[in-house]
Amino acid sequence: MNDFNRMTRYARTTLSVALFAGVAATASAQQTQLAPQQQRISDQAIHADHSAYEATQGRIQALNDGGRPIRDYHLAKAQCWLDVSFHEYSRNDRSDFPQLALTESEKLINGMEQGVQPMPTDTPLVNNAKYLRDDLWQRLRVVHGSPGFMCAQQQVACGEVELVHAGNEFNQQQWRHSKPYIQIAEELVNDAEAAARQCAAAPAAVSAAPGPLVANVLFEFDRDGYRDIRTYSLESIDRALASIASENLQLQSVALVGHADRMQGRGFDANQALSERRAKTVRELLIGRGIDPAKVRYEYRGDTQQVQQCAGIAPRAALLECLLPNRRVEVRFEVAR
Hints:
The longest helix has 48 residues, at 153-200. Helix content is 52%, strand content 9%. 38% of the residues are buried. The chain is globular and about 65 Å long. The chain starts with a helix and ends with a strand. The protein has a four-stranded mixed sheet. With 337 residues, the protein is of the alpha+beta class. It has two domains: 3-196, no CATH class; 212-336, CATH 3.30.1330.60. It has nine helices and four strands; from the N terminus they run H-H-H-H-H-H-E-H-E-H-E-H-E.
């Protein structure tokens, strides 16, 4: 985990602890209204908003005190919506995002307080947040539908919220500002998958097959060699291999899928060849790390599966950086116990 993510998670944990202290729970089902953007200029208005956040945090604490566990999907999601709302409010975000995220938190709190069943599991793109990283959304959906979800609820809930948070930042200040929250979401997805696999190893679910470990190896624009791989993306490979060893999993096979971005034109034949070369490079990389060549298969899909659209991004350097998640080789380690 990089320093930014450590600091962000620490700051949010500190926020939650601070807001828990001395807060009386409030049972009101009415929506909390923050001060209008143009009025957030006085100590009185800011104090009132902080009191509103404290009251909302107190309601979450009361639900936990009443027996709903921290790891519960809906309690965790209410907390994460509250956290991102306060985070952006504290950063002086003058858009509707802090209010809308707070409202999403309160919707869940109201439902839990009233005993609503079933509770909703949708994650709206509040403030018209950009839909980013379809691959991460899909991985979260897989975990959500797996037997191991019971052990990964908190990570899934917060991963979904962070993807919306990232999409909001993308709309406001483009890729440079959304990237840190994408990184947080990536780590939460990896954590969710690991928690789900470990849950499947418990005696009550010993018959459940563990899900695959997923990694993405990213390449520089129009490049396909080992030296053209973004170094930090190799960490996802090493982390997956370390998880296989630490969880005593048996590697059955490795599936590689090569991809390219759209910069050369959608459907461009050269992108097919480029994505194949990238897949071959990663295959050789895995063999060099001791994986049996017979277990590694690959395919390639050119620019047909873009996970990051980056419409309207300029200049060219910013666009290339935004499109980086498309220049990837997806690695799926199929495992068994």
